[in-house]
Amino acid sequence: MANNKLKNLYDQVFDQVYPQIKNQGRGVLYTVMHIILYAEQSLSTSICNYLNIKSSATLEDDKKIVEGLISNPNDLLNLNKFVKDKKMELYWIVITACTLTGAYSCYKYLEYKKEQKTTQKISDNTKSSQKLVTEPQSVTPPRQSLTAALCLVVPANAIGNLRKNSQINASEIEKLIDAASYFLCTSVEDANTTQQSLELTDEDIVNISEQKEIYVRINIADGEEIVGKKILYIIKRNLPTHGQGIVRELAGLKYLSGLEKFNRV
């Protein structure tokens, strides 16, 4: 009975996350771990680091981790049987993530999704009610574009050839996100205020020790979908399709102070 309930729990998690990973080529297990542990990103990162679960891993890499964690020969036989079925491959990867994060975390995640749906339903009903009393000729104004300020604290060895006021593409932004120990995605105005609390150095980035922490601020046009987000994989997933940003600040950090508003990885 308990095993059936656990399988049902994990199947529900799979139903929730499958639409988000069905077209994903890399980092599936890493992503699912962070989805389930949405409120405990540092724990998810610690588990992934310990088990060498990477955001750049291929499905084949994830499958090897799944195989390494399966102790039941019959389960391994089933995995190999459906190896050509991508959905079944993804199912096993999700089940592995569920096992690693635990039944309680899966339950919390499903309750969180239910709460989201209830909130969305209430919001939709409110919008529908408002629409009924709105004049037929009224037109909803287009959504305003917002420039996001993505603020990261990364080790100097992650900077590469990046320079202040230079352009940066999506793949480079994602690499910096993966290397970050602190992050904040906010409006340009809020970033200006927050930056005043940081103690930045005037050192030339080229000469800074590889292990020293660097503050990087990237302005990203049309970034309204990532402002305020507190989960790194969601920021990566919602980066604008144009995939471009501008490095507005790049400096060494004298101390790790003034980071109270930042999210720690």
Low-confidence parts = none
Could you tell me the mean pLDDT? 84
Number of strands: 6
Query: In this structure, how is the largest beta sheet organized?
Result: 6 strands, antiparallel
Compute the number of helices: 10
Q: Quickly give the structural class.
A: alpha+beta
Distance linking N and C termini? 38 Å
Residue fraction in strands: 5-15%
Helix content: 40-55%
What is the 3D shape? globular
How are the strands of the biggest sheet laid out side by side?
2-5-4-1-3-6
- The helix-strand sequence is HHHHHHHEEHEHEHEE
Radius of gyration over all CA atoms, rounded: 21 Å
Explained architecture:
This protein is of the alpha+beta class and 265 residues long. A six-stranded antiparallel beta sheet has the order 2-5-4-1-3-6. α1 crosses α7. The relative contact order is 0.13.
Short description:
With 265 residues, the chain is of the alpha+beta class. The protein has helices spanning 2-21, 28-36, 41-51, 59-69, 73-81, 86-101, 103-132, 170-179, 188-195, 232-237; strands at 148-155, 167-169, 182-187, 213-220, 244-252, 263-264. A six-stranded antiparallel β-sheet has the order 2-5-4-1-3-6.
